[in-house]
Amino acid sequence: MSFTIAIIGRPNVGKSTLFNRLVGQKLALVDDLPGVTRDRREGEARLGDLEFTIIDTAGLDEGAKGSLTARMQEQTETAIAQADALFFVIDARIGLTPTDRAFADFARKANKPVLLVANKSEGRHGDAGAMEAFALGLGDPIQISAEHGEGMGELYDALAKLMPEPASEDEAEEDEPISEEEAATRPIRVAIVGRPNAGKSTLINHLLGEERLLTSPEAGTTRDSIAVEINWKGREFRVFDTAGLRRRSRIEEKLEKLSVADALRAVRFAEVVVMMMDSQNRFEEQDLRIADLIEREGRAVVLAVNKWDLMETKGGGAISGLRRDADHWLPQLKGVPIVAVSGLMGEGIDRLMQAIQDAYALWNKRVPTSALNRWFEQAIQANPPPAVSGRRLKLNYITQTKARPPSFVLFCSRADVVPQSYLRYLINSMREAFDLPGTPVRITLREKANPFAHKRKRPS
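Above: the chain sequence. Below: its structure as tokens.
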């Protein structure tokens, strides 16, 4: 039986630090600046032998109706409604504030079990604030230090009384090996990346059919990389919304650096990366840098041109123009799928989701050895490798070592002098021969062992 806990409290009391401590990873961004967390983030937590789902929320704060602050609070209210219990966190060093008292009433009205957590209680600095917390009427405060891991035993004891009895060993299902069919139906990990304000969160909200992620005309609304589960026509996806990526020279604030690092981490753990561009300003320098980063990381790529509903000229001619532009500006991803979408209006969503599945299939593709050998012979005959310093290069054979992405080893002589232009020729020829448009292809050069290298030269 699953058990869900939402961490609530005013800004900058250490909710995200506690979240990271319980999930055992630095998933949520943490900074001294109040209000870092905006969207709610879920994770699988463990405390001793207790396993549960934990939700990190934005700091409870008051804001005008319709404002970003008010919508952040709506996200928190949704988390409270989903939770079975609450961790109400206060800053023990500062003590109670009027905001703490106001939102303690808010927590009581939720009519759910509440554990009062006095964070930042390392040493004896938080004793006074913890004593003040009795006035909230939420029970005995549990003094902890989420940053240093102090007080976790007391938190365990209090939480164990709230959680349901775990299933017995007889009732628990044994782990069974995963079949190939089950592996094929595992959720596809998809990261949505792009420049700020390209419409990434709006697109994911449309896929979910709810305002799960905060959106705003102001660039930089998203900070954490938030993962959401999506079922699209029977296929499961785990989609990561990420912060907008600006040029490094423009990133000055520490918080934005953390957000960008979190986005890059999402790219590295994704299987398919959807790079979103604004239809009004597409294929700008930063778009090309992001696409090159994705290719270097070896992820399957889909280009999504968002805000297509704002385009004056649509139709086949405009789509063909996108195709030509993509092949011109991204030769390293020749044939990459490109889809025109509108995250706000829902245009092109079916085509985008199908493109993601197709790109994922190509990323996992293995080429039969016999077909690979036939192609290799024909490619060399059509365009033999050039001579370097008057000496001919000899290419012996090629074999595929792995997929995800398709990777090959080419055995040859003098691997260190094979021109990059000739490798690009082989990669592009392979794309056409085996229908691998857009997916990264890796060719590693390896020199074939010389069987006579151990023999000494005869004395003259």
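The first strand starts at residue 4 and ends at 8.
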